[in-house]
Amino acid sequence: MARRSLVQTTKAAAAAVIAWIVATSVLELPQPFLAPYAAVFLVQATVYRSLRGWAQQVGAVSVGVLLAAAAGQFIPSVTVALGLVVFTGLLIGSWRGFGESGVWVGITGMLLISYGNATEPVLLADRLLETALGAAIGAVLNAVILPPLHGERLRTATSRLASAIADVLEKTAALVRGGEAADLLHERMRDVRSLVAEAEEAIGWTQESRYLNLRGRRETREEPLANLVSLWPPLAQLIDAVSEAARSEQPFRHPGEYARGVVGDLLEALAEVARSGDPDKLDRCRKLVEEIDHLLVTPTDEVTTSIGLGAMALPARRLVQRLGAD
């Protein structure tokens, strides 16, 4: 992530310098301060955002220029024109189509009115040209030179979520066997839920960074992380079932010692698969699921516990299925 930040910062600085040189030395625009300003803000976190931002920024600045021109022609008082242009510009800029560039409508109008450029068509055209130029340079530079990818964010999220899920499964196995506090387990589950949200955000960034990206084929695949995210619903159901059985004073809800041992073995095996990411290790998990199914249908001294065991069996089976889906 530090490397990506350094690359993006370097590109932003280069874009500002290039925009300034082109605007001053090539086009000879007077006071082209908007060119480097726009260039910096268009070196964004993804290529898609840079290209979308270019269209939004040029559109917002164009509306701001038109507002300033209209105010300069029909409102003689600079103070009144300034207030009306800022108010109207910010109101128009709140349209979601402008995105984060919407504020440029009011700001552009304010700058042109305050600098006294609103009545000079040539200067108005210059402001629009330099903004479009700077934004284009920033967007193109971001798209062509080491366009940003977010594989590192994805890999970090995958590692953290896999480790947290494995830890929770191991703690759940201890609770099933009677050696762990349910309250502590629920605290760990809140951590997992937070990591799931981070993982979903990382997946979104990865998918967006691949779009229109010349290096998109080199991006890390998000399927392994998406598969881990899909474990959240059955994992939460399993924790609820185990916690409810552990708190219950009714013997028919809490599985007997042997059944709890099988469930504990299954959860520890699932933890190993989640941590290693190796679906080939699921064979033992599948055998343990079959053993749980056998306990549910075979009359034994412990089958009075079938309600609690059945509540654990379904989410445990789903965990096995989803870990093997990659």
From TrEMBL:
Which GO cellular component does the record give, naming just one? plasma membrane
Q: Which residues form a coiled coil?
A: none
Q: How does the entry describe its membrane topology? A: Multi-pass membrane protein
Give the primary localization class.
membrane
The residues the entry assigns to the signal sequence are none
| TM region positions | 12-27, 63-92, 98-116, 128-149
Name this polypeptide is given: Putative membrane protein YccC
The alphabetical list of record keywords is: Cell membrane, Membrane, Transmembrane, Transmembrane helix
Name its cellular compartments. Cell membrane
